[in-house]
Backbone:
């Protein structure tokens, strides 16, 4: 045992033996963060967080309300223990081959006054990059089953800080971001609201997490939660006068916010802090607060790049997920061979073979097929208790023939399970569905939850559904199947525990470029917000950015980036299951630009954030896990800028060739988005590159040693 650790343990022992009514303090390993904990005059727990002696969270209360009892005040401190933990662990995949998990911990055991002496432990973990804390309830007499009524956790801020946020909603995360001071957020979100179609607006003025904040004195603060297990997802109520936030748990439609049995612990509430925006992006705090991998064998979990029958249904060419236009078809009952095919169903054997051929020729690992199975004719009906079957292909989709063909080409097929948010029926079908996948060579599935949830008492982020998503990952693991979930609750780092849960959508993704578009700053905000919980299936790689290309003036939609920025997203929006989202024919047309998508990895051994400012720009360098090659991605918002790229992440004394995929001089995301240039330069660790980025533009760089 090191002298440092022995000292901390002895201090913890001393505090435990000499409890006073004064505040108890905890510092991060590097000393920059300090936590103050105390009980107020009413015996209510309160805390305060400081960074480099600067207040981040002012004194804020803690506590939980249950229907059966109140665990908010009347407490005394029974015990305080302080300890240190330091380990290095190896993720199955991700931005880093190794992650350090180093924190100082303070566990405060509280006892409530009264004859029953109810107990609650508050556990705080202070990392160099932030704070995690949670409530723990041990087994105790006269207390077993509890119904969560409310959580009183507060985050009292120090001023009228800038928020990067989306509105509080129980059913969807797919909103455009608003950037504004707290005092202007309410109005800003109302102006910026773009409907998805199945919103369930929170019952108070609230925002979703992860919430990114920039303070008036130059700090970057990110508030979220980690390890969302057996509990409701947390929104944040906003007091735009007092500049305060407090927890808002997602209820079910009966108004209940959760049902728990002792012993239990809440998810961790997280606050990441730095005076450098790059540290927010690099933070692994949320992963570190999750439990280690639940599986002994992870050899079957394979990061992959894929393309698929998907984008052509969005671009206005009349393609459809449904085999027939005849409604009221009943999956498993209707003879689909007797239905008249509509003639514009792309999930057919011949067309999928074309995708398989292209993937094989270009080193793409897999092909996703949407619309392959029975049930799409009137999908999304909230009145149907069974919408889809997951082992019944349409007549024009030959599962056995495609299995053999894909295997002969060295390509996997990714299955699609759109549930129409009928989670209860999906649970009934899961084992049959996963067995069917095993029988036909599928190792990954994209799940979807579009629409209002069945069971009809639930929301997408209520307790029952959060348990459902985890059960899907666990059940899929028994069949060695990887999950890419869409429309699920936003992630909280559970991919560490269940690494087959490789990616989620859970935000406004690339598909919205065909439905009004994503703002130029959108992908410069997502890494600071949505991606803090885990990878996103954003679907980058759209090179034909003007959708009028397909049917002229009938389609005025366009992708709100340049072509070069689409390439850079493979670095700034990392995911171990990453899509090349455009059509094969477009990749053939832009074959030289497509070369970057061919070669860019999806799994990394190291990452260096070179420049960052939320909503404005991001520049990152990443090293391939399976080679010594480095790649760089740089993006900007609507403002043209010059990225300053220092190559000091390269080993000294060696020479490299950098291939730069960049915006041409006349590029602009609105007027000339597909104008790009490819050039090569020699670089060393001393090179500093001044790289121009066009309006909503970017640059992608591939580096190889000479």
Residues:
């Amino acid at each position: 045992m090191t002298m440092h650790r022995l000292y901390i343990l002895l201090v913890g022992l001393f505090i435990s033996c000499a409890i006073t009514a004064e505040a108890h303090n905890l510092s991060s390993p590097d000393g920059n963060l300090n936590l103050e904990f105390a009980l107020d005059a009413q015996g209510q727990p309160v805390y305060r967080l400081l960074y480099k002696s600067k207040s981040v969270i002012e004194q804020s209360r803690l506590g939980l309300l249950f229907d059966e009892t109140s665990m908010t005040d009347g407490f005394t401190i029974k015990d305080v223990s302080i300890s240190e933990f330091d380990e290095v662990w190896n993720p199955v995949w991700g931005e880093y081959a190794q992650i350090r998990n180093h924190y100082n911990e303070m566990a405060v055991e509280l006892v409530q006054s009264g004859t029953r002496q109810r107990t609650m432990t508050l556990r705080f973990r202070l990392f160099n990059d932030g704070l995690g804390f949670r409530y723990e309830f041990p087994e105790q007499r006269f207390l077993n089953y509890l119904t969560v009524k409310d959580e009183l956790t507060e985050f009292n801020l120090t001023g009228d800080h800038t928020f990067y946020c989306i509105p509080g909603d129980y059913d969807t995360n797919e909103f455009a971001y608003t950037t504004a001071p707290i005092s202007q957020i309410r109005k800003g979100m109302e102006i910026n609201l773009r409907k998805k179609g199945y919103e369930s607006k929170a019952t108070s003025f609230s925002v979703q997490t992860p919430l990114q904040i920039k303070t008036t004195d130059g700090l970057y603060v990110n508030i979220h939660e980690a390890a969302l297990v057996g509990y409701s997802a947390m929104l944040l109520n906003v007091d735009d006068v007092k500049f305060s936030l407090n927890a808002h748990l997602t209820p079910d439609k009966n108004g209940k916010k959760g049902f728990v049995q002792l012993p239990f612990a809440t998810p961790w509430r997280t606050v990441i802090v730095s005076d450098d925006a790059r540290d927010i992006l690099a933070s692994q705090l949320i992963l570190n607060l999750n439990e280690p991998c639940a599986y002994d064998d992870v050899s079957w979990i394979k990061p992959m790049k894929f393309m698929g029958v998907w984008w052509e249904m969005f671009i206005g060419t009349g393609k459809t997920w449904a085999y027939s236009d005849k409604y009221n078809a009943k999956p498993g009952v209707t003879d689909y061979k007797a239905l008249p095919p509509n003639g514009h169903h792309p999930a057919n054997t011949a067309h999928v073979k074309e995708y398989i051929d292209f993937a094989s020729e270009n080193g793409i690992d897999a092909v996703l097929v949407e619309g392959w199975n029975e049930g799409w004719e009137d999908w999304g009906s909230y009145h149907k208790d069974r919408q889809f079957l997951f082992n019944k292909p349409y007549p024009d989709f030959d599962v056995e023939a495609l299995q053999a063909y894909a295997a002969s080409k060295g390509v996997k097929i990714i299955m699609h399970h759109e549930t129409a948010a009928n989670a209860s029926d999906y649970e009934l079908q899961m084992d049959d569905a996963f067995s069917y996948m095993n029988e036909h060579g599928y190792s990954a599935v994209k799940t979807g939850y579009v629409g209002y949830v069945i069971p009809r008492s639930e929301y997408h982020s209520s307790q029952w559904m959060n348990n459902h998503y985890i059960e899907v990952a666990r059940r899929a693991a028994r069949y060695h199947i990887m999950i890419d979930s869409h429309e699920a609750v936003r992630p909280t780092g559970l991919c560490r525990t269940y690494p087959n849960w490789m990616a989620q959508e859970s935000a406004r993704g690339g598909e919205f470029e065909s439905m009004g578009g994503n703002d130029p700053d959108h992908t410069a905000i997502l890494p600071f917000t949505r991606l803090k919980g885990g990878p996103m299936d954003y679907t980058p790689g759209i090179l034909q950015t003007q959708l009028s290309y397909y049917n002229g003036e009938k389609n005025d939609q366009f992708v709100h980036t340049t072509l070069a920025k689409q390439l850079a997203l493979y670095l700034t929006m990392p995911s171990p299951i990453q899509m090349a989202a455009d059509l094969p024919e477009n990749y053939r047309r832009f074959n030289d630009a497509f070369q970057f998508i061919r070669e860019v990895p999806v799994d990394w051994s190291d990452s260096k954030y070179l420049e960052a400012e939320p909503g404005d720009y991001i520049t990152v360098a990443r090293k391939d896990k399976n080679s010594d090659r480095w790649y760089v991605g740089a993006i900007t918002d609507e403002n043209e800028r010059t990225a300053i790229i220092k190559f000091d992440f390269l080993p000294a004394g060696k020479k490299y060739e950098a291939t730069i995929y960049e915006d041409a001089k006349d590029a602009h995301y609105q007027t000339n988005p597909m104008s790009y240039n490819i050039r090569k330069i020699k670089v060393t660790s001393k090179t500093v590159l001044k790289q121009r980025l066009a309006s909503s533009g970017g640059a992608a760089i591939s580096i190889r040693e000479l």
Remarks:
- The first helix runs from residue 3 to 17.
- The first strand starts at residue 24 and ends at 27.
- The two ends are 46 Å apart (CA to CA).
